Amino acid sequence: HNLKNDINKIFFVSQATGAFVIKMCSEVVPTYFASRLLQCLQVPTPDVKILPFYDEEFKAMVHAMEALTLHDDHLRYIVRLSMDRPFILLQEYIPAITLDKIGEKR
Q1: Residue 65: left (phi > 0), alpha (psi -120 to 50), or beta?
Q2: What is 2-105's CATH topology?
Q3: Secondary structure string (H, E, C) spanning 33-96
Q4: Segment 44-65, tens digit of pLDDT
Q5: I want to staple 69 with a disulfide (CB 3.0 to 4.6 A). Which of 27, 47, 76, 93 is the partner?
Q6: Residues sharing a CB contact under 8 Å with residue 66, sequence separation 6 or more, in sequence order
Q7: Average confidence (pLDDT) per 10 residues, the chain, 106 residues
Q8: What pLDDT shows up at residue 2?
Q9: What pTM was estimated for this model as a whole?
Q10: CA-CA distance, 53 to 88, in Å (whole number)?
């Protein structure tokens, strides 16, 4: 899933080992610093990690996301364009509400 914006892009990725939010942003350092500061102040905050483009984990993540777009050329183009950055901020995804509690079941 992708939320479009001129500056920022957010991908929600769910896999067997967990779910993550991949956030491409123009201001990675302040976002990372704010997250670490909140953690030091013991404010419940999702864990974050900065991945540079040359990191093996970054490359594996891009490859995995491209593999999911095998039959959708437009989506593959969007993923490649979005991931063409020097750094990305990987943030732990902690759902505020589970799917079984949405809508009428709430």
Answers
A1: alpha
A2: 3.30.1010
A3: HHHHHHHHCCCCCCCEEEEECCCHHHHHHHHHHHHHCCCCHHHHHHHHHHHCCCEEEEEECCCC
A4: 888 888 889 899 988 888 888 8
A5: 76
A6: 76, 79, 80
A7: 51 69 72 91 88 90 82 85 82 73 63
A8: 43
A9: 0.60
A10: 8
| Domain boundaries, given as residue ranges, for the chain | 2-105
**Which amino acid does the sequence have at 30?**
P
Length of the chain: 106
* Six-digit token string for 6: 């001129």
Query: Burial code of 19-49, b = ≥16 C-beta within 10 A, e = fewer?
Result: ebbbbbbeebeebbeebeeeeeeeeebeebe
